[in-house]
Amino acid sequence: MPRPRLRPARRRTSPTSTHRTGTRTPRPTSRRRNRHSTGPGPTGRNKEIEGYQLDWFNDDPSSTSWNWYADANQRDMMWMARDRGADIFELFSNSPMWWMLRNDDPRGYDAGWTSNLQNGDYGRHAAYLATIARYAHDHWGIDFRSVQPVNEPALPWTPEMGRGQEGCFFDPAQQARLIRETRAQLDARGLSWREIPAMDENGYDYALTTWNQFDSDTRQAAGRINVHAYRTETRRDLLYAAAEASGKPIWMSEYTDGDASGMTIARTIGYDMRWLHPTAWVYWQIVDNNNGGTYGPIELVNNQLGLVNTKYYVLALYMRHIRPGMRIVDSGHPDVVAAYDRSSRKRVIVAANHGEGQYIGFDLSRFTTVATDGALVDRWYTSTAGTERYVYRNDDTALHGKRFW
What we know:
Layout: E1 13-19, E2 33-38, H1 72-83, E3 88-93, H2 122-140, E4 144-148, H3 172-188, E5 198-201, H4 204-213, H5 216-221, E6 225-228, H6 236-246, E7 250-254, H7 263-276, E8 280-281, E9 287-289, E10 298-301, E11 304-308, H8 310-319, E12 327-329, E13 336-341, E14 346-351, E15 362-363, E16 378-383, E17 391-393, E18 403-404
Parallel strand pairs: 2-3, 3-4, 5-6, 6-7, 7-8, 9-10
Antiparallel strand pairs: 1-14, 1-16, 10-11, 12-13, 13-14, 15-18, 16-17
């Protein structure tokens, strides 16, 4: 867990983590969830990710219209994640296959605010995804828990918008149609237990607007709400209230930022846990090929691994210590994330300090049992202004009754 007491030095200190047991080895990703992107790309300059169905001639996955050797690198990474403990997989699509599109360009329609998917191909797009999910089950040893037919559908995707990223606009009615079509195609292939999330919008307000326009049947067909955390200035609590009223869990299914210090991501995690209450929090990707940019905690420059920036060690404080199955409890402050493991009675606190060094006090008196008075508290900390990265200490923080600081 993050340490509850921060050094009173005049510097900015990132999240610290505190608990009673742990390891000194920094492994920042929990590796529990893996999101697998299906490629829509044609050949040439518009291709970002290869697709499996090469053309529209034959829907039989054993025919020459399908190439199951495509996109081998991403598939290898998925297998490596599985072999290292990942057990929750999601299949998602940035755009339908290029040959289903009005302009053959998976980066979006030329006009924007207009769906690029041809009206007669909604069922075919759903069938494409369902076929991949079935093939993965039969041949790859992968069961996708959920299949997401869109990605950030409220954005006005055009070829000029996303620096080459694929995308496709869908209004709420079109999204509802895709949910129905995907549900039917999955069921037809014996995959009735696969969930279809709604709908990986770019921000909380977009997700709420879309959800409020779905009818009751569409909401019922959606297994949960996926949302991305990019519009951080909008209200998370309203989306949570809508999800809670419908009995739907929330995944925060994508986030990244260019702040290498990790302070921005610490604030985003804290605010999400405080007001969004997601059951999963998914980072975009640990290694990002942004030619010197800092969207990934591990930087990739000209296809060579570069620096491991401070954000890596900030994420370690959350993802190494807040483990699957723990319950997030109300800490009383968005810069403090607290979790509790009922079986081991372990308490984890991750505290972020966005200003000068300070002491932060914690009161555990609502817990029936804590360690004995004077027991030392294990803590790890990372400084964003110094050289300390995921440093372990257990010699300077002790319980005073049910309190420590």
